[in-house]
Write a structure and sequence with these properties.
164 residues; 52% helix
Length: 164
């Protein structure tokens, strides 16, 4: 079974606030008029970046513990179309789906009945991919892109005035 210290470390990382900001801190005060903005030399919009994170989080959950799993084609199915524009409600849906995925990562990490060292539900018979590996990989992927989002906000001056 999984050591309590491993679960505690995962939960601390998922909850954020140590080496990186939380998802909600990253989104705080983000101006709706920039949901579809594509920064110079970046092939996706702010929403496109969030949608990519949502797709990957949900794919990871399906692969690791879900009832069904369908592999996606890289990179086409991991990113929305570059010219896709979204409404505020679609932005909110993507953000809420990411929140749900993060909540599910947290639930899995905290659930003592789940052996995090067990092979993922949909891993090939010859694969050593564990639930723990997939959680860490997904958390790392989120942190990378959340940092990217925050830096792009900084470059474009999209943080609320007075943010420290």
């Amino acid at each position: 079974m999984t050591a309590p210290a491993t679960r505690e470390a995962l939960l601390a990382i998922i909850d954020g606030g140590r080496a990186h900001m939380t998802f909600d801190e990253m989104l705080a005060g983000f101006p709706a008029e920039h949901h579809n903005t594509r920064p110079t030399n970046v092939p996706y919009s702010f929403w496109g970046l969030l949608e990519h994170v949502r797709i990957c989080c949900e794919l990871t959950l399906d692969y690791a513990v879900g009832e069904s799993f369908t592999a996606l084609k890289w990179p086409d199915e991991f990113w929305p179309a570059e010219d896709r524009l979204v409404s505020e409600s679609e932005w909110d849906a993507t953000a809420n789906a990411i929140r749900s995925a993060i909540h599910e990562f947290r639930r899995i990490a905290a659930d003592n009945s789940i052996d995090l060292h067990a092979r993922c539900r949909h891993a090939a018979d010859d694969s050593d991919r564990t639930i723990l590996f997939e959680l860490v990989d997904a958390i790392d992927h989120c942190a990378w892109h959340f940092g990217e989002f925050a830096i792009l906000r900084q470059v474009l001056g999209l943080w609320p005035e007075g943010r420290s």
